[in-house]
Structures are given as structure tokens and as C-alpha cells.
Design a protein that fits this description.
Number of helices: 16
Radius of gyration: 21 Å
Strand content: 5-15%
Number of strands: 12
Order of helices and strands: HHHEHEEHEHEHHHEHEHEHEHEHEEHH
Largest sheet: 6 strands, parallel
Shape: globular
Structural class: alpha/beta
Length: 372
Amino acid sequence: ENYSADFGQVIKISDKHFGKKFCRAWQRLLYGGWLFPFSKIARNINCKKKSILFTFCDFDPIPTKLIRILKRKNRMNKVVLIEEGVGTYSITNQNAEKTFGRTTRHILSALLGAGIQCRAMGDNRDIDYVIVNDVEKYRALDKAASQIVLRQSKSTIFGDSFRFLDRFLDKAVRDTLETVKSDIVFLGEPVWGFGDLTSDECAFMEHIVGLFPANTKILIKPHPAEKKGKYTDFVRRFENVELVDERLNGVPIECLMGDVMHPQMTLSFYSSAGINIANTFPNIFSVFLYKLDSAKTLSETIPLENEVINDDVFVGPFHNIGVPNTDAELREMIAAHVSAEKTSTDNALQNGGYPEIDVVMQSLLDGGEQKA
């Protein structure tokens, strides 16, 4: 909307088949492998025109292929990595275990012409700009040495949530927003089983629900990438657990927080959305469960092959983040931050523009000169 007049065509590359194994293989072959020259994306890359690629990922086969082709066409083209979550601050795992399953997966991907890159997010030499929430933390990483690091205007993004919801939802869905109020919101994550609810995940969630008083309403907000109906059977087993209207599944949870949900606490394994919420809404306490003893089985099965998560990202300016190690610590957090007397949900939202995007766009107008 803001830049198309000066920069011409804006192309959105969607990923409609994420989570379906067969479709993922076909997608990698077409968009990240040998059939790339026949894809719609390839036809949009014009070597005579300078281009900017904005991406949330730089190591999966599809964005890796696109980045490589874009730079090969014209070295003046720019690649911008936008912080997607805690993985942006991870470092490449130099001691990743070479299992049979992992090796097989790499071989199959290579046969498709879409080889898997064994590195962490941001560890791509072709990245020109990185837009992150915590500039200082990212600049301390080795991978930032050759990149221009810009601060992300997250508070502005979420401050614009009502306008976003107005455009994203039709009236019938907007009318359901009054039904999603809850003191506790559990944030779904498509970490295991391609979006299915695994038995280990189900057992863990059941254990967590059991730590709350029976009269505490817990609302589950599935991640957009999770399969439809993932939590349906689970919710039926509890009187105090409900699901967000499925028509809201595709809405970023941060956009539902301040003026819609008004929760006192969010729960997640290690969702990046929980950090965004904590850094934007001082009165919402965000709890990350990945260090709990009861989470050990899940922790051991997280598919983090090439990266090591930086625990330092689970901190915030408002001291409203909790990472319990035991059930007793989690109960203490519940007692301290969840009460019958609701407090107003203050926020740190801002209105304004996106100066980090302006910097990137101006570099293209200036002939590709990089300006910090």
C-alpha cells in the first residue's frame, strides 16, 4: 500500500500447503528445486529491475532457492530477513547429531534439487538487512557482522491491529470477538507432528490444565499453521477449556490481545508470540513451559537440528515473563498473577510509520547504497 507507487509491483508469495507432507514435497520441487524455472515466482524475477525480497526464513529450501536466484540475477538486489520469532536469535549448532532419519531427509531433499541448509536463521551470506525487535542482542551474534540490523516497529504493528482486523475479517467473524475473553490463553505451536496433536503433547497439556483451579477458564488459540480440529477432542475432556472460534485461527494472537481478549496470563511452550505479548502488554504475564520437568519428553523431540535457542530471549522490559522449572514454581506464578479482580490491560502500543522499511526502500532508490 505504502510503497507500490514508487516501486511498482508487489508480489506476495503464499505457502498454502504448509503441514501437508505430500504437498510440501511437491512445493519444494516446484519452488525450491529443479522445476523452479517453471514456477510463477521465477517469471516475476526480472534481472533488469532491482528487487527487494522480504522473508521470515532464510534456510528452508524454498526461500534459500529464491535468495540465491535473486542475487544471481542482480547483485544489487536486496534480501531482508524479518524477525519471525526466537529462532532469529539462535546460533548454528556445530554439533548437530547426524541421525539416519535426518540424513535420509537431506538426501531426498537434495534429489528434489532443494537441499536443506544446515544452519540457523540469519546465517546466510546473502542477507543484506535484518529487522529485529532486539537490535543489541542480535548485533552481539557473529552472523550480524556483515548485515545491517534495523529495529522492528512491533508496537506500531500491534497498535494498528483494529485496522488489520477490519480488513482481515468479515462482519460475521468480527461479531465473534466478544466471545474470546479469558483469563488464561494457551498459545498453540506447530512444533510436533506437522500440526497434529501428538500423544506426548496431549499428555503435557492435560498436566498443565490440571495445575489450574477447576473454575479457571482456559482458552486455546491455535497457531495458523496447525491443522484444523487439532485441539477439538482435547477440549471436550474439560469443562473449563475452550477453543477460539476457528475463523480466528489465522489471526495473529497479538492482534487479539489488548482490545479483545484481555487475559491475565498466556501459556506456551516457547512461542515467540508470548514474547511479543509480554513486550507490548505490561499487565499480561507470559509463561514459557519448555523448562518444566513435565516437558522433558517434548523438549527431547523438538526438531531443532541446526540451531541452538538462546535462552536470553525470554526476558522483557516489564518483568512479566516467567520460565518455571517445576510445577511448584508454575503454581506460584498462577497464584501471583491470576486473580478474580481483573486489572486494566495497559499497553505499550504506538502509532506511526515503519522507519526500518523506509531505510530498506530508500537504499533501492539510491542505487543500492546501504545506509545504516
